[in-house]
Specification:
By secondary structure, this protein is mainly α. The chain is built from twelve helices and no strands. 67% of the residues lie in helices and 0% in strands.
Length: 340
């Protein structure tokens, strides 16, 4: 039902935009970032882009059909479609953007709340489709009711995933917020202090490592069973896709961002737009690009370990002749005990 509500709301909003309404619509992706709180002149946009109008309506129709398919005909292909829909919605929400922009907006930085709201709705829809897919997945075997220990290597990678944003992001950004030119030219540090308020700097510094702590759920009991203090969900099993899909999407986004950023830097150096002396002078800034890449790899490995630990294990069928041999063996053991 929640997935149906999500699809209906999204299609209704897009139909409203197609008809000429502009409430909730933003044009900041098509124009220069001027007046982001007002949608960058969204009311002046006459022609709606395909992806925001009829394209989105078409995607909504596909999602509606997928919901019916999942509920009425659960199976391997419908589950694969549901998983793909959940991943697509989470990718479109771009979690990394939300991770940085929402804290900055909360401390007073001018932000495009229409865009942030739309991304939050997409992220919610992705989680809803992940939950529906998990609920409709065919039960092929017995799943242990308790906690399934993750492989030891998964725990090690989880700790690396938690440590990377602390050492590679929070520490340098915290020093920059305090005015310490750690691995960055003084002129760039001055530009940062002129463009960012203290609250924004604190938010940008603390949010990534705090969000990184959520990865511990992939190796702890509360990542497989909801804590007892959660009303309505206490001690219930966490749908694996509810953890695997968001974590996998974030890992993919981190790796993609890291690779693209490093590629851009290398291209600038090869073209002479950036000199090696500048790279060495701002080594801490360059290092953050590698932090994102390594962070994504570590999160992806940890997510894989969680998926392995929580996958459904099919029951092994026992053949009749095996059952008969077991019965004969048990009877022989009883006879031996009686003889002694």
């Amino acid at each position: 039902m929640a997935c149906v509500v999500f699809v209906v709301v999204e299609v209704t909003v897009r139909a409203y935009w197609i008809s000429g309404g502009r409430w909730g619509y933003t044009a900041c992706d098509r124009t220069h970032l001027v007046d982001p709180t007002g949608g960058c002149g969204a009311d002046l946009v006459e022609t709606l882009p395909l992806r925001a109008g009829w394209g989105a309506v078409g995607v909504g129709a596909v999602l509606a059909v997928l919901v019916v398919w999942l509920v009425r005909f659960p199976g391997r292909y419908s589950v694969a479609g549901g998983g793909a829909a959940a991943a697509l919605l989470l990718v479109l929400s771009f979690p990394l953007h939300l991770l940085f922009e929402i804290p900055a907006a909360l401390v007073g930085r001018p932000s495009d709340w229409r865009d942030l709201g739309a991304r939050l709705v997409l992220a919610t829809g992705g989680l809803l489709f992940a939950g529906l897919t998990n609920a409709c997945a065919p039960r092929r075997g017995a799943q242990a009711a308790g906690y399934q220990p993750v492989p030891r290597w998964t725990r090690r990678w989880a700790y690396v995933t938690v440590a990377l944003p602390v050492a590679g992001w929070a520490v340098p950004h915290g020093l920059w917020a305090l005015g310490v030119p750690f691995g960055i030219p003084q002129r760039e540090l001055d530009d940062i202090h002129r463009s960012l308020s203290t609250g924004t700097g604190v938010a940008i510094t603390l949010v990534p490592p705090l969000a990184g702590l959520l990865v511990l759920g992939l190796v702890q009991r509360w990542g497989q069973r909801f804590p007892h203090w959660l009303p309505g969900l206490r001690d219930r099993r966490v749908p694996p896709l509810l953890a695997v899909v968001p974590a996998g999407v974030v890992a993919l986004a981190l790796v993609t961002y890291g690779i693209l950023s490093v590629a851009v830097l290398v291209r600038q150096v090869l073209r002479g737009e950036t000199h090696w002396s500048q790279v060495r002078e701002g080594w801490a800034v360059t290092g953050t690009l590698l932090v994102f890449l390594c962070w994504g790899v570590a999160l992806g490995v940890t997510t894989t370990g969680y998926a392995i630990a929580t996958r459904r294990r099919p029951e092994r069928a026992v053949r009749p002749e095996q059952r008969a041999r077991s019965a004969v063996r048990a009877a022989g053991d009883v006879a031996d005990l009686a003889g002694h």
